[in-house]
Structures are given as structure tokens and as C-alpha cells.
């Protein structure tokens, strides 16, 4: 599944374990949201203990299905995944979700909104829909994108932690959606916000990214965002100041479960996402390709250790799927 023989995955990913990564999402969406807030009423993104958990685990199923149908040897799980999505993504549920989000802000709203926008982009690629469903999804994503932009605009400064509130990652999700949907207003204003928050070239230290609760890399989410904001020449100059010594990535063990247990268990995939962008934008710099390959090996090694871990998997599986299938982003 998604092997190098399929013609679009790298040789290092010849045994990409997406089946192991999607199973927790299948199990997770069957678990009720444990909250007394109105978000518990969601039928579109039900399960996974929280609203944002429902958002990114439903996205995982859709991305898995999209990747599977591109494969020459689709996984036996493909039909089960299709059925799980089809069960929730009905016109009625989408309509109810629109009304729900007009009146209730879910916990970790920005993170949830970002994943809903990501979900809509993948769904547009694969899902057979009626005209009514198309209009409803359009209404839903416009509502979500507008609310996410409003929330981010109210910030006095960026949140640079490794938590769901990470401003760079949520702004990257919004910008990516705006670009692919041709929303020039949100695209322009998102870039302006990114420049305001992250144009400074203060160096970051990847060695510090070992927070027990970290699910995102503060350093590399900024890099990921700015790679979409700046032109290549400006990005190269900005990156040189932000991360002047790329070799530090090769020696950083913050994202290796064998040495750190669960410390920084979500940092690896967000690093991998950013490194993939860097090596594409700066192909003349071999160090970035080497750093990417090193991080890829570490990430895939961690996936094997994660798959039976009830703490790590529900949070990290979607991020790993996003990073390991970056050809579809």
C-alpha cells in the first residue's frame, strides 16, 4: 500500500504503515465526546472524545481513503473507511453542523476549524456529492474559515507553544485552504498576519522541543507557514536566520520514543512536514534532503512504537498521516 512500486512514494516509504495509523481513527470516532458543551450535539464529527478530535480523525479517514484509491493495491480497509465516512457525512448532518457552529464555539476551536478546512480539501477530491451537498459544504467551510480568521485576527501576538493553540499551524491550515479555494481576501490578510507574527528572524533551537505535552513543533510550524508566505529567495534568507545550523536536526533526539518515551511525541510529523517543503524549495541544499530522510526514518520508527499506545495514537496518527502523504497536500 503506497509503496514505491506505485510510482509516487519514495523508496524509504515502501512499507508506509497507513493501515496501522488509520485503525485508531476508526475506533476513535465510535467513542462519545466527553463534554457538556454544545459541541456534543455534533453528528457530522461525532466521537473521539472532543470536537477537534472528531475533526482530525474524520479527516484521517478521508485522507486514507483518498490515498488508498490512488494505490494499485487498495487496502482491505478501504470499504470500511468509506462506510464510516458515508454514515456521518449526510446533507442533514452538514446542515445541522452549520447551525451548531453559528451558536457554539467548540473547545480548541481554532485547531478544530483548521482540520475541518483540511478535511474539506480532501473531500472535494474524492467524494461523489449532490448539488445540495456541494452547496452545504461550501457554506460550512466558508463559515469555518471566516471564524478561524476572525479568531486569529483578535490575537495580540502568536501562540508559539506545541499545543493545539499553535498560531503558525492554524494559520497555515487557513492559508492553504484560501489558496486552494481562490479566496484572495483571506489569502492576502493571512499572509499579512504571518508576516506580522513571524517575519522576525530570531533563531529557534530544535533541541528544546521535548515538552511532554507537545503535539506540534513550535519551530517547524513557523517554517511550514513561512514557506507558503515568502518567495523562495526571501524564505531562504529567513530560514538561514531562523535555523542557522540544520545539522542540529540530525543530532536531535527529542522525537525518538526509544530515548524519550512520550516526550515530544507529536513533534516528529510536524517537523517532517516542514522539512518536506524545505527540500522541495531548496533542492540545491543537500543538508535539507538528508535532514528529511533522517526525520522520515525516525517518524516511521515511532509509528511502529505508537500504534498500540492509547495515549499517543489518537493525537499523533492524523499528523503522521498528513506528513507521510504530503504528495496529496
What topology emerges from the helices and strands here?
Elements: H1 18-28, H2 51-70, H3 78-88, H4 91-103, H5 109-126, H6 131-153, H7 167-181, H8 184-198, H9 218-229, H10 232-242, H11 247-251, H12 257-260, H13 267-281, H14 286-306, H15 313-324
Helix pairs in contact: 1-2, 1-15, 2-3, 2-5, 2-15, 4-6, 5-6, 5-7, 6-7, 7-8, 7-9, 8-9, 9-10, 9-13, 13-14, 13-15, 14-15
Q: In total, how many beta strands?
A: 0
Q: Based on helices, strands and strand pairing, what is the structural class?
A: mainly alpha
Q: What composes the largest sheet? A: none
Low-confidence stretches: 1-14, 256-263
Instruction: Name the shape in a single word.
Output: globular
Question: Secondary-structure element order, as H and E?
Answer: HHHHHHHHHHHHHHH
Which percent band covers the strand fraction? under 5%
Mean pLDDT value: 79
Number of helices: 15
How many angstroms separate the termini?
Answer: 18 Å
Sum up the structure in keywords:
mainly alpha; 329 residues; globular; 15 helices; single chain
Amino acid at each position: 500500500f503506497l509503496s514505491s512500486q506505485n510510482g509516487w512514494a519514495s523508496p524509504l516509504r515502501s512499507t508506509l504503515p497507513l493501515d496501522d495509523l488509520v485503525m485508531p481513527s476508526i475506533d476513535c470516532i465510535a467513542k462519545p465526546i466527553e463534554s457538556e458543551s454544545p459541541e456534543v450535539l455534533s453528528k457530522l464529527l461525532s466521537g473521539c472524545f472532543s470536537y477537534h478530535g472528531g475533526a482530525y480523525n474524520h479527516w484521517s479517514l478521508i485522507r486514507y481513503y483518498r490515498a488508498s484509491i490512488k494505490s494499485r493495491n487498495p487496502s482491505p480497509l478501504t470499504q470500511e473507511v468509506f462506510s464510516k465516512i458515508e454514515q456521518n457525512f449526510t446533507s442533514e448532518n452538514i446542515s445541522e453542523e452549520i447551525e451548531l457552529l453559528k451558536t457554539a464555539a467548540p473547545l480548541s476551536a481554532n485547531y478544530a476549524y483548521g482540520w475541518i478546512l483540511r478535511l474539506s480539501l480532501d473531500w472535494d477530491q474524492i467524494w461523489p456529492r449532490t448539488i445540495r451537498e456541494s452547496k452545504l459544504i461550501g457554506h460550512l467551510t466558508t463559515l469555518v474559515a471566516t471564524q478561524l480568521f476572525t479568531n486569529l485576527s483578535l490575537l495580540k501576538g502568536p501562540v508559539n507553544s506545541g499545543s493545539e493553540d499553535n498560531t503558525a499551524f492554524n494559520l497555515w491550515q487557513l492559508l492553504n485552504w484560501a489558496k486552494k479555494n481562490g479566496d484572495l481576501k483571506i489569502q492576502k490578510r493571512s499572509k499579512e498576519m504571518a508576516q506580522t507574527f513571524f517575519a522576525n528572524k530570531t533563531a529557534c533551537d530544535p533541541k528544546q522541543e521535548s515538552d511532554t505535552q507537545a503535539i506540534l513543533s513550535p519551530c517547524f510550524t513557523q517554517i511550514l507557514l513561512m514557506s507558503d508566505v515568502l518567495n523562495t529567495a526571501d524564505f531562504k534568507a529567513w530560514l538561514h536566520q531562523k535555523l542557522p545550523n540544520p545539522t542540529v536536526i540530525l543530532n536531535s533526539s527529542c522525537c525518538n520514543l526509544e530515548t524519550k518515551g512520550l516526550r515530544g511525541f507529536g513533534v516528529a510529523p510536524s517537523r517532517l512536514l516542514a522539512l518536506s517543503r524545505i527540500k522541495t524549495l531548496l533542492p540545491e541544499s543537500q543538508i535539507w534532503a538528508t535532514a528529511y530522510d533522517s526525520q522520515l526514518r525516525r517518524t516511521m520508527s515511532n509509528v511502529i512504537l505508537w500504534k498500540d499506545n492509547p495515549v499517543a495514537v489518537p493525537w499523533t496518527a492524523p499528523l503522521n498521516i498528513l506528513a507521510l502523504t504530503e504528495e496529496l497536500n
